[in-house]
Amino acid sequence: MHAEVVVGKAAETTHRPHFPVLDGLRGVAALCVVVFHFYEMVISSYSKLWIGHGFLAVDFFFCLSGFVLGYAYDDRMARMGLGSFLKARLIRLQPMVIFGTVLGLAAFYANPFGVPPGYSPGKLALLFAASIFLIPYGTMHERGRNLFGLNAPAWSLFWEYVANLLFGIGLYRARRGVLAGVVVVAAAVLCWAGFHAGNLSGGWSARNFWDGGARVAFSFPAGLLVYRMGWRPRTRLGLGALSVLLVLALLVPYARGGWGREAAEIILFFPLLVALGAGAAVTPKAERICRISGDLSYPLYMTHYAVIWIWGEYAQKHKLAGGNLWPFVALGVCILVVFAWAVFKVYDEPVRRYLRAKL
């Protein structure tokens, strides 16, 4: 589900202040995605999930991405040019795309419940290459025809790259009136997609590919518009209160045909939450927590699904669907958080530092 764009690192390179609460909220959203995926793999009916709208965290990611890219690049895109911009985005995002794919391939072979039949080395090599280069290739039927079967959350990275490319080509030059028009039209497209599908959870599979385009087509420009309009109301709501609001939005009970409620959250609530997060003030201690949360978010998002398929088969074998799942989920989430932090420190941060120095 999201793709991540960080404000802190871009801001550090130009000695500009950043928005710490947005970093913190990104980490909270990533954690919700992980919890959602643990439960979703066992309980397929969203109406029976206590976090039935966890998939909407991706729309929050897209909205946040539009805001922070506008903040980080609006005033320097003309100087740096499209090539340098795309190089910067590749350095920021691609190392974890590669790591997540390698991890997914390793988990595919190491699955203690067996490797699905019909996957020759050549076919797996093709799946691996498509995932590395983010070329949608939804051919794994036993995995719901995920666009990226070796690392399912990469679907949102595909759309993130599309949004980044459009931003670099010309969206950064769009005046506020034009951008507002784009947002209005995109909102209509989003509603049509929700009405047609019955929900706004699509984009991850070859069966609902274009729904992902509708989701990013609204949320990314909406976040950019929030930045361009200067909507950053000063508020005493800090990371804790805004995190509660974000989680509550994801806890709204799911109902088939409830796409209107989902569209309302995406169109109205998430841009408001981004604006409130941008205007929130934090203490130095809370700012450190926000920074850790933001640093953890992307590695957690891009590594957690390697074990989700294995978890699903384990839960099915031991018939956990009718039992109490939370001890298993809590343990799994804790392990994945520790692993993601290690990946950030040992791989993601050093690799990006090296690439920035070389390129």
Number of domains: 1
Number of strands: 0
Uncertain stretches: 1-14
pLDDT averaged residue by residue: 93
Alpha-beta content class: mainly alpha
Q: Which sheet architecture does the biggest sheet show?
A: none
Q: Tally the helices: what do you get?
A: 13
C-alpha Rg (nearest Å): 19 Å
Question: Residue share in helices?
Answer: 55-70%
Layout of SSEs?
Layout (H helix, E strand, L loop, with lengths): L6 H7 L6 H23 L14 H17 L3 H34 L10 H12 L21 H16 L6 H22 L11 H20 L10 H13 L7 H21 L4 H20 L1 H13 L8 H33 L1
Please describe what this structure looks like:
This protein has about 350 residues and is mainly alpha-helical. It has one domain. Helix content is about 70%, strand content about 0%. The longest helix is centred in the first third of the chain and has 34 residues, at about 75-110. The radius of gyration is 19 Å and the shape is globular. Mean pLDDT is about 95; it is low at about 1-15.
